[in-house]
What we know:
Elements: E1 5-13, E2 19-28, E3 33-37, H1 44-51, E4 59-64, E5 67-68, H2 73-78, E6 80-83, H3 95-104, H4 112-121, H5 137-149, E7 155-159, H6 167-182, E8 186-191, H7 194-200, E9 203-208, E10 211-217, H8 218-224, E11 227-234, E12 251-252, E13 258-264, H9 272-281, E14 286-293, H10 296-306
Parallel strand pairs: 3-8, 3-9, 6-7, 7-8
Antiparallel strand pairs: 1-2, 1-4, 4-5, 9-10, 11-13, 11-14, 12-13
Amino acid sequence: MTPIISIRDLEKTYSGGFQALKSVSLDINAGEVFALLGPNGAGKTTLISTICGLVQPSSGQVFIGGHDNQTSYRQARRLVGLVPQEMPTVQFEGVRDLVRLSRGLFGLAPDEKLLEEILKDLSLWDKRDAAMKELSGGMKRRVLVAKALIHQPKILFLDEPTAGVDVELRRDMWRIVSRLRDKGVTIILTTHYIEEAEEMADRVGVINNGELILVEEKAALMSKLGRKELMIELSDTLPEIPESLKGYGLELGAEGRSLRYTYDAQGERTGITGLLNALAEAGLRFDDIHTKQSSLEEIFVDLVRAN
């Protein structure tokens, strides 16, 4: 299968000497949902901007639908819809006119039926004549999505699309992503939310310090990232872990008032039931118990160390 996006040895060094991308190579297949994960400053936005032709690479090549995005920019860009992180600076333009203009920029004739369909899908129809300055942050984000979809791209880039938005918009976003995937649209998204990647992605890539350090099928990656912590707040101070509990790999917290148990959330057996029974048999009482999953930031630190 010929990839719809092919990236070869892509590098970007800014004038100040900062190297944002380091020899990135990646193929993305038509119709797949690819999640690009990484901590702040990892290079996610630079990579997307370079693929879309908004940032000039220092070296390397990007092919979109077989078109070199530097020498055949118009043909490549026509295939792409981009929802950037940045909120729009246009304040006085009406929603409908702004989205309609975006379609015209690609040399396409107006399509009022499609425009209405997209605005209704994004719950923007009632705001179609409102100026951008009148909209909430969440509504402005919806307008960015509408602008990206109006020319019916084959590839949709979503750069942190649900960062700082309300739950309703997040649900709308993933409903639209599901619908577009069913239509064969290729979707590349960046996100800090591991549950979004788990829910939507076919493959996941991890980028850190400008390097693509990992690309895997979602199931394989989630197995690696599926560790959780069970925190047990003890009723009484515990000077040391009893001999009967040492097989669980527990860690004693500060002042001996808590126990931490790490387990594989993806495994068939977590061992939690056995641990709780063992605590009772050891005569240990606890006031509270709760789980915690490492943030992506913490997971990425572990991945970087491992690589």
